[in-house]
Design goal:
The structure holds 2 protein chains of 2 kinds. Chain A is of the alpha/beta class. Chain A folds into 2 domains: 118 residues, Aspartate Aminotransferase, domain 1 (Alpha-Beta Complex), CATH 3.90.1150.10; 257 residues, Type I PLP-dependent aspartate aminotransferase-like (Major domain) (Aspartate Aminotransferase, domain 2, 3-Layer(aba) Sandwich). Chain A is 36% helix and 14% strand. Chain A is built from 13 helices and 14 strands. A 7-stranded mixed β-sheet of chain A has the order 2-8-7-6-5-3-4, with helices on both faces. Chain A has a 3-stranded antiparallel β-sheet with strand order 11-14-13, covered by helices on one side. In chain A, strand 9 and strand 10 form a beta hairpin. Chain A is globular and about 80 Å long. Chain B is an alpha/beta fold. Chain B folds into 2 domains: 253 residues, Aspartate Aminotransferase, domain 2; 129 residues, Aspartate Aminotransferase, domain 1 (Alpha-Beta Complex), CATH 3.90.1150.10. Helix content of chain B is 34%, strand content 10%. In chain B, the strands form 3 sheets. Chain B has a 7-stranded mixed β-sheet, sandwiched between helices. A 3-stranded antiparallel β-sheet of chain B has the order 10-12-11, covered by helices on one side. In chain B, strands 8-9 form a two-stranded antiparallel sheet. The radius of gyration of chain B is 25 Å and the shape is globular. The interface between A and B is large, with 198 and 198 residues.
Chain lengths: 444, 486
């Protein structure tokens, strides 16, 4: 076995030092009655060649192996990843390091994550960002818990029903054993969170609104802020498409208290939905309530600059049962990837990519409209939008997948039963005019 | 004779903060030609472009290459970090996960178009169920602590279903640090349980506090002293007799693969860390993956969606009325699952058993080789890790931290320090099976040399480290006036 370095001679010498007669002897503190008798029943070990063949066979059972035109987003986006990103992030000094508990030999991770935190604050217009969370949904659930802990008189959190359906389910899971409750804010016929319904709610500790929302629409965050202030509750906002902030007015400028986001768009492959990148940002006031790791500046004993993990008294390994969260491992390497991506595209690139996403989406919407789709909502969007499809579209959609490897929109009916024949489309910088024209021809 | 130490001097580069390198007008991405009309957004909706650094491609490459050179990884040297299982991360695992059919897969492509991914998840669940001796597995939790949360939610849901919720959970002093915080998230009050004089739990102590208000117990086995909980079966029986459940923290599974199946010991629910036992990289803090295994009794409570097999096709199923619900936006860290599955397929049953045996051999070899040099509070046959402390060095005013920092100068990552809490000044060594006898001998020699320095040259320890890019950092000052962004 190529990962196991011990020769028979090594084993004998080491057993002699350990005072054991055999390898089995090492396990004599384990009662025989509970030991595995006939070995584990697992597939026979594969050589690297066999593994390659087997894994390629599995991979080829996913349609993604052929390369496809991806016109769905809904939390996982098809953006171009520059060649330098996988190249740099696979440097094993980053990939094979542990959490930087020993800062003297972890300055690479620490400076990289400090810069990541800074980039996230720039992107979102917030004071502080954490070193990352698992994904947007889990980050948002943590934000809900913060609001409920900060506002002890309330036991409910108001969540827009245009927050990603999976994220709402995660909040539900996290709240179930706590006795707290999530109340849904309905949406208006325009496809926006219903502010009047929010205003009428009582006993809530915070409000969470996603923008752009699950339908792709840009929400009126200023209006959410106004209601939050009137009610003296925390204003939480979330997003699934991080590149939107290359062009849209950021959540910080609307006075958000907490922001949870998905950073998968920032140089991270879709990978069947994970690992992505949870982004979590807040105001300075909430610094000690934030879950998970934070990197801060420090001086060494010579007075030189460096970085350390800081404010760890909030965390599980110090504060134990009174910690602000139980999170330990986060999505650090994907945070590093995002920092590399944001350094690569820079201030100029992010604006241009964001604009291109919007341009393509507007074009896709126009050609679909020409092909007989109905643009149900007339609201500004970034790169996703909802269309009502002609009756026979579902069959055409399946044909498009099978014949052309084109994924034309996500059926919304499983998420919003009233929206039969409604599809959520997404266009990114990767889709060409020719591909969109071809699609329009096929579905017309 | 002292073997050559791996750490030596070498040229590394200074590298400023990324914004200090930025120059107006640079951009390191090639932008596609616009083939559709520009569609400006309403100016009321747009903001200024975020102030990201502006760099050329080589600027970016050099920045991150230099940063990486300030890091220590498993590929650089031995990383004997207790309870973290820093074993070698096979490179072929990365190749498998990067295949277009996996890396390019959209999570909402539909079951028909995702059969390879679903089959892999299903087969990995079966393999982990076999390794742990449980009936069912979920791969959804994103990390070990997330798996713990899943496990506690399952216990909570189980008691709710029985019609009577309970208020407490027993947590031994040899459990992992995340355990109490995970229990709190479910509203359970932690009841601390002291381990016995042999460093393991005593059934009588469990019986004395286990009652019908207690939801269960969280046990790490082998525990964080590196000792197998010999009374585990009896303890499970005591807890079950009062209607409680036993949670197993499988972070230390690397000691017992193919030797013991925790599911056969009476444990009801167990989480694993694919980024420890199953060789996927830690990534400087993540992403990990924390699958949870349960017995039949708890299977209905597993998170959704579940992967199910129907003849030879696979599908996601969400219709599980007793499920705790969803824990991740999609299905968990699929990319990490591919790597762990590649590892299991490469190792096979015998390979995994050998890995555990050699991990335990390496730890016992270190324990016996160093117990004259460092104090060993529990001198018993250990599993895959052993815990020393600084009792012998205190007379020279040298602490565990000083020895840990001096190890950096010798070219080793320090062990886990000051954990577990049950040992004062703990120095917790987990070598893993992938370190060779020569590398371990070098480590042993380094610790012995450092112990000698503690007597003759203590300032070499208190001033350590001197070779890394920075010396000891003032963490207290950093926390007093936090500066969290540039």
């Amino acid at each position: 076995m190529r990962y196991l370095p011990h020769t028979q001679e090594d084993i004998q010498k080491m057993l002699a030092v350990a005072g054991a007669g055999s390898l089995d002897d090492l396990f004599k503190t384990i009662p025989d009655a509970v030991k595995v008798k006939d070995g584990l029943n697992l597939p026979a070990p594969m050589s690297e060649w066999e593994l390659n063949d087997y894994m390629e066979k599995l991979a080829s059972e996913n349609i993604a192996c052929k390369g496809y035109t991806c016109l769905i987003g809904a939390g996982s986006y098809d953006h171009y990843i520059p060649a330098i990103i996988p190249y740099l992030v696979s440097r094993s000094e980053f990939a094979t390091a542990y959490t930087p508990y020993q800062p003297e030999v972890s300055q690479g991770t620490l400076q990289g994550i400090y810069e990541f935190q800074t980039m996230v604050t720039e992107l979102l217009g917030m004071d502080i960002a954490t070193a990352s969370h698992y994904d947007c949904g889990t980050a948002l659930a943590e934000c809900a818990l913060i609001a409920l802990r900060k506002n002890r008189k309330a036991d409910k959190i108001a969540v827009s029903d245009l927050v990603h359906p999976s994220h709402r389910e995660i909040i539900d899971t996290y709240l179930k054993p706590t006795g707290y409750e999530m109340v849904l804010i309905p949406h208006t016929k325009d496809g926006l969170t219903d502010m009047a319904a929010l205003e009428a709610m009582d006993g809530i500790a915070g409000v969470a609104v996603q923008s752009p929302n699950f339908f792709g629409h840009i929400e009126d965050l200023a209006a959410v802020k106004k209601v939050a202030d009137t009610k003296k509750i925390l204003f939480i906002t979330s997003f699934t498409e991080a590149l939107a902030w290359g062009i849209l007015k950021n959540p910080g400028s609307f006075g958000a208290d907490l922001v949870a986001g998905e950073g998968q768009s920032l140089g991270i492959a879709k990978t069947f939905g994970g690992p992505g990148l949870g982004l979590l940002a807040g105001t300075s006031k909430l610094m000690r309530d934030l879950p998970g790791r934070l990197v801060g500046r420090a001086k060494d004993s010579n007075g030189d600059d460096g970085y350390v993990l800081t404010l760890s008294t909030r965390e599980q390994h110090i504060r134990r049962e009174r910690a602000s969260s139980n999170i330990c491992s986060n999505n650090g390497l994907n945070a590093m990837t995002a920092a590399m991506y944001l350094s690569t595209i820079g201030k100029i690139g992010i604006r241009e990519i964001a604009q291109l996403n919007h341009d393509k989406a507007v074009y896709l919407k126009s050609v679909l409209t020409d092909a007989g789709f109905e643009p149900v909502f007339d609201r500004p969007f970034f790169n996703e939008f909802v269309m009502k499809a002609p009756k026979d579209f579902n069959q055409k959609r399946t044909d498009l997948i099978n014949r052309h490897c084109v994924f034309a929109g996500l059926d919304l009916a499983p998420y919003y039963p009233e929206l039969t024949d409604h599809y959520l489309f997404c266009a990114t910088e990767k889709v060409s005019k020719q591909q969109m024209d071809q699609l329009a021809k096929e579905v017309a | 004779m002292m073997t050559q130490r791996p750490g030596t001097k070498g040229l590394i580069f200074n590298e400023p903060n990324v914004w200090d390198k930025s120059r107006e007008g640079r951009c390191a991405i090639s932008l596609p030609k616009a083939d559709v009309k520009r569609a400006p957004l309403d100016a009321a909706l747009t903001g200024d472009a975020p102030n990201l650094p502006q760099l050329s491609e080589l600027d970016v490459v050099r920045h991150y290459t230099r940063l990486s050179q300030w890091n220590f990884g498993v590929d650089s040297g031995m990383y004997p970090l207790g309870s973290c299982t820093m074993k070698y991360n096979p490179k072929t695992n990365e190749v498998q996960a990067a295949r277009q059919g996996f890396a390019g897969a959209h999570p909402l492509a539909g079951d028909d178009c995702s059969q390879g991914a679903l089959r892999l998840m299903y087969d990995l669940e079966r393999a982990l169920a076999e390794i742990t001796g449980f009936d069912a597995v979920t791969l959804q939790p994103a990390a070990g602590a997330h798996g713990e949360l899943a496990g506690m939610l399952i216990i909570h849901a189980y008691h709710a279903k029985q019609g009577k919720q309970r208020s407490k959970i027993i947590i031994p002093d040899t459990a992992h640090g995340t355990n109490p915080a995970s229990a709190t998230l479910c509203g359970y009050k932690s009841v601390n349980l002291k381990s016995g004089p042999k460093g393991i739990l005593e059934p009588e102590a469990v019986a004395a506090i286990m009652d019908e208000e207690t939801a269960g117990i969280m046990i790490t086995n082998p525990n964080t002293l590196g000792l197998f909980e010999e009374n585990i079966k009896e303890i499970c029986e005591i807890v079950h007799a009062k209607g409680g459940l036993v949670y197993g923290d499988g972070a230390n599974m690397n000691a017992i693969m193919g030797v013991v199946q925790p599911g056969k010991l009476g444990i009801d629910v167990l989480h694993l860390n694919l980024h420890k036992t199953f060789s996927t990289p830690h990534g400087g803090g993540g992403p990990g993956s924390g699958p949870v295994a349960v017995n039949d009794k708890l299977k209905p409570f597993l998170p959704v969606p579940r992967v199910e097999k129907d003849l030879d096709t696979f599908k996601f199923v969400t219709d599980c009325p007793d499920s705790i619900g969803r824990l991740h936006t999609f299905y968990g860290h699929f990319g990490v699952m591919v790597k762990a599955y590649a590892y299991i397929l490469t190792m096979g049953a015998q390979g995994l058993l050998d890995a555990s045996r050699l991990a335990v051999l390496n730890a016992n070899y270190i324990k016996e080789s160093l117990k004259g040099t460092l104090n060993l509070p529990y001198d018993r046959p250990c599993m895959h890790e052993c815990v020393f402390n600084d009792a012998k060095q205190q007379e020279y005013h040298i602490s565990t931290m000083d020895m840990a920092k001096r190890l950096l100068d010798y070219g080793f990552h320090p062990p886990t320090v000051y954990f577990p809490l049950v040992v004062d000044g703990a120095f917790m060594v987990e070598p893993t099976e992938t370190e060779s006898k020569e590398d371990i001998d070098q480590f042993i020699d380094a610790v012995k040399a450092i112990a000698k320095e503690a007597q003759t040259d203590p300032e070499k320890l208190t001033a350590a480290p001197v070779l890394p890019k920075v010396t000891r950092l003032d963490e207290v000052a950093a926390a007093r006036k936090p500066c969290l962004r540039g």
